[in-house]
Amino acid sequence: MREIENVMDPMLPAPYRIQRVLREIADTFTLELEPVNSAALPPFASGQFNMLYVFGIGEIPISISGDPVRRELLVHTTRAVGTVSRAMGDLKAGDVIGVRGPFGSSWPLEQATGKDVVIVAGGIGLAPLRSTMYQITAQRERYEKVVLLYGARTPKDILYRRELEQWRAHLDLDVFVTVDHATKGWRGSVGVVPRLIPRAPFDPSNTIALVCGPEIMMRFTIAELERRGIAAEHIFISMERNMKCAVGFCGHCQFGDHFVCKDGPVFQYSQVRDLLVTWEV
Amino acid sequence: MQTLEALLTDHPFFQGLKPEHIQFIAGCGKNARFDAGTYLLREGEAAADFYIIQHGKVALEVLAAQRGRISIETIEAGEVLGWSWLFPPYRWHFSARAVEPVRAIVLDGACLRRKCDVDHDLGYELTQRVAHILMQRLQATRLQLLDVYNVQKQGRA
To answer: Is the pLDDT of residue B153 over 70?
Structure first.
């Protein structure tokens, strides 16, 4: 009986209080959360997600964008684009939100040890990879070259601009940023993020690539990574599907033989290559 | 100081090209520098040259009514600029401005065409390489047109 009491029910949200709401860019915000009962934050790995519940409105999956090493607060960044995420965007410091998780697979940073790491992010796809950047920069000696390629829609849509500038200032990180559509005064690169891949300094025979962004952007990115010579087994992507239960019961996020919530969201590209181009999935 | 042949050999566009072809091509080339803000080429003008970018960043621009100068793409070190020298009527479709100081090898387009007419193997190699660049830029343009980060085009919870 005692054993049962100690097991967390994965379907039961824990109450978390919002410590701070950061307005990142026009429609994107970050929530910093702390458990209401002062319990320790559950451990998580970069790439995993939580189910965030706005009471009375609904629950959505959101990747963890905070630091997996320091783990002072639970941090999530999302865009206000639907009923739940808009309601979440209206919440303020002091409000309480429900949290289930963490769930799912993580970026393979163990496997990347001793290798070059190429991180390719598009739009809000940088959020789950920010956790990875925190971890990599905290353990920089474990990796060879570290390259971050980031694409945003316009200069005003660049997420985590301050951190991108800080990482770019590191002598042992290569950070490239591009925008799909330039605005007046932008002096940086213009063009889609896959265009950065031929310019990036890494050894394709000893590289792990981590990719997150809209699915079409990931497909074009993978094509360019493969053209550079990275094997499909060394490319990892983060998939997004309609996740509900988050533990592989409900089937909402079924993707071929996989459940994105349980087997993903991070997949080795070779596992899902055929599914990515199957229209019926 | 490296010779033009050595610089061309090191450039990704010419990777794997036979030394005699590199030597042939170098005969059409010269080194050039462009200050930030200067135009390498302008829309509508004769497309005379092929630019092998060694250093710096170039913005491809088009002038749109009421929007002014729009930068549609940047071409950077290790890449090439301009293919209109290869196809009639040999006119530029866009303008190209140095965003930062640029070092390039400028190859005379008419000279390259003459050499390709003389040596069809070289012509095939160059055409294939330009076609590859065209394919890459076309794919990139298609992705750009899809506007994948536009939230209005996505259904989310």
So the answer is: no
Q: How many CB pairs under 8 A join A and B?
A: 83
Whether residue B40 contacts residue B98, with contact meaning beta carbons closer than 8 Å, is answered with yes
Of B136, B149, B157, the CB nearest to A157: B149
Chain region(s) in chain A for CATH 2.40.30.10: 2-103
Out of B71, B100, B157, closest to residue A85 by CB: B157
Would the ipTM clear 0.95, i.e. be above it? no
CATH 3.40.50.80 domain position(s) in chain A: 116-238
Provide the sign of the torsion angle of the four alpha carbons B23, B24, B25, B28, taken in this order: positive
Cα Rg of chain A, angstroms: 19
The CATH number of A116-238 is 3.40.50.80
Give B-chain residues touching A24 at CB under 8 angstroms.
Answer: none
Please provide residue B22's backbone torsions phi and psi, each rounded to the nearest 5 degrees: -60, -45
Q: Does B77 touch chain A (CB under 8 A)?
A: yes
Positive or negative, the Cα torsion across B5, B10, B11, B14?
positive
Architecture of domain A2-103: Beta Barrel (2.40)
Domains of chain B: 4-147 (2.60.120.10)
Q: For residue range A166-178, list pLDDT tens digits in order.
A: 999 999 999 999 9
- Separation CA A117–CA A207 (nearest Å): 6
CB atoms within 10 A of CB A36: 13
Report the half-sphere exposure of B62 (CA within 13 A, side-chain side).
Answer: 9
Chain-chain contact of B149 with A180 (C-beta, under 8 angstroms)? yes
Q: What DSSP assignment string belongs to A20-67?
A: EEEEEETTEEEEEEEETT-PPPPP--TT-EEEEEETTTEEEEEEB-S-
Q: What is the pLDDT of residue B55?
A: 97
Would you call A273 an interface residue with chain B, using a CB distance cutoff of 8 Å? no
- CA B122/CA B113 separation, integer angstroms: 10
The nearest CA of chain B is from the CA of A42 a distance in Å of 25
What size, in residues, is chain A?
281
Is A214 part of the contact surface with chain B (CB cutoff 8 Å)?
A: yes
The whole-angstrom distance between A3's CA and the closest CA on chain B is 36
